[in-house]
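cron nightly-structures :: item 1 of 1
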Amino acid sequence: MMKRVFISLLMLGATHVSAQTVQEQIAQDPKVKAAVEELVIANHILYDQNAVDGYGHISVRNPNNPNTFFLARSVAPSVVQVEDIMEFDMNGKALHGDTRVAYGERFIHSGILKNRPDINSAIHGHAAPILPYGLTGTTLKPVYHMSSFLGEGAPIFEIRNFAKPNPDTDMFVSSVDLGNALSQTMGLQYFVLMRGHGYAAGADSIKKAVFRAVYAIQNASIQSEAMKMGQVQYLTPGEASISQETIEKTIGRPWQLWSERVKKPQ
């Protein structure tokens, strides 16, 4: 009997947390406050590092509820503030009666976060150096240790294969079904290309997701230049695995650099 009461209280507590607005959760829970504030900084970093422009977005799973996530309303990443953050369920539905305009491609985030419990933060952007690899059949593969998370190469999401009833679309991942399809293409990878559109990246933390987005884009630029010179020596699967384990222990260093940079008066 006591066990049932305890479980009921836990469920009540979970319901209470999810029923609170984002601002109420921020005011009452330090973990939520830290996650949302870090999300705001991440938006600014991604813009500063040319991983997104006026378009693009980053999400984070609610640390108190794995079935919801935080994402800004539809504004440019460079201007996102705490008050812009909304909360969504895993079908991309805005919670708490929030009627502000949301990103149309929030389903990228809901699809990845719903199907990948190991991922807590997802990013979408359209960085130009990435785009050719989604168009040509040339695989984006790790050429140096910083991009070792690319493993044996980034998969390509072909929206034509999943769009119904017409394969011709506006190229936007704008539904639950397309978000799930993108996640399916991503598989167990952390980075996926979107043909004629951009990329999505994911990680178990905001810092790591930002790291991966920035260095995947750098990898694309380096790989493109190297291919002009001759045959490219890519990291072997073993090198990629060992390098990833080593380098991702140090992501606090670039995060410190990037965050201090965006906090300075421009």
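cron nightly-structures :: done
The chain has a mean pLDDT of 93.
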